[in-house]
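assembly run, all chains below
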Amino acid sequence: MSIIGYGYAVWAPLIWIVALAVIGVMVLIWRNRGQKSYKKGTAQTDIFLSGAKVPPEEQRHVKSENIYWGFFESLKELYDALMKPHTGIVNDYLLWFVAVLAIAIPILVLAV
Amino acid sequence: MNLKAFNRALWVYHMNTGSCNGCDIEILAVLTPRYDVERFGIKLVGSPRHADVLLVTGPVGRSMEDSVKRVYAQVPDPKVVIVVGNCGAEGDVFHEAYSLVGPVDQIIPVDVYVHGCPPRPEAIIHGVVMAWAKLEKLAKQEVV
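ok done. output:
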């Protein structure tokens, strides 16, 4: 078995595989010791939502953008400022392009 | 009490259907070091799907009717229902209120009633012990 030492840590794939297998078996044994008296196909296997009616699957999807809520909320002012120029009209974007070029080209020419 | 058929810890799901919190505070008192029922394996759980006992407080407001039915249906068998407090048992001073559909036994079958406003922790513990005995009977029937 090859063990790679980095001075502060050890990477031995076989040890990890064996450890994960042992943990997996332990979890399965633990799971099998759980409650078995559920009646499958009844409300006993339904999702528990504090007693509220569970909405259809398509309505309870959590979008990935939800996890960025705090990020967007704290940078709201910046995003609002950035989003204002974005009208979605191609003419506006071309105008921005021309304006930036008109400023950038003289600066580059002068700098060279 | 000689427990044979139901020989595991008793897990309880507590549901408030419009209680004033008086009974709920007494239920918490049952878990404090003075009474400490957790030493017998009796503990509150966060989901009816993990529970053996459904413990209900409050007189059941109209908006809670569906929730009570749903939560009761989600408790695995064998299960028992304890009602703690006069409100859940018979409506108490609210029994004629327009906003109530209770008491609890009008909505779901109830096995143990613990009266009081609020009941003392000793009375609640007694109710839980009675529920445990009933659960033992139900478990035996399932085994047979």
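Strands of chain B lie at 11-16, 43-44, 53-57, 80-84, 112-114.

DSSP finds four helices and five strands in chain B.

not gonna interpret more than that til we talk
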